[in-house]
Design a protein that fits this description.
This protein has four helices and no strands. It is mostly helical. The N and C termini lie far apart (59 Å). The relative contact order is 0.17.
């Protein structure tokens, strides 16, 4: 596969994921469920935590996907033969980090509410 093809695939992947995350942001889950949305024990405690977690996670996913759009052009000049694999690894790492950051925000926000 040529470097140009890898570049187009990696960029297409980032754009596709951005579209998916935008749809998730635009149409968040209305009710707590086990199929769709940001589902962790902490986020599913009640509707308030559920709503906050889904909005926060969706915003982070969109931001991280926008940052990911800069990875393929940068890699095209640094490591052109590994554009696809590095883009997917970095994007997946950013996506998984959303769990960490969202859980921290849930803990901070709803710990304060319990103490009040």
């Amino acid at each position: 596969m040529t470097n140009e093809n890898q570049f187009m695939i990696a960029l297409g992947y980032c754009i596709f994921m951005l579209i998916i995350y935008f749809i998730y942001f635009k149409y968040p889950p209305k009710k707590i469920n086990y199929l769709y949305g940001y589902r962790t024990r902490r986020s599913m405690q009640n509707y308030e935590t559920w709503s906050f977690a889904n909005k926060y996670a969706a915003k982070l996913l969109i931001n991280f996907s926008i940052y990911s759009l800069f990875i393929p052009p940068l890699l095209y000049f640094l490591y052109p033969e590994y554009i696809c694999i590095i883009t997917i690894i970095v994007h997946t790492t950013l996506t998984l980090s959303v769990i960490y950051f969202t859980e921290i925000q849930l803990k901070i926000k709803f710990k304060k509410k319990k103490n009040q």
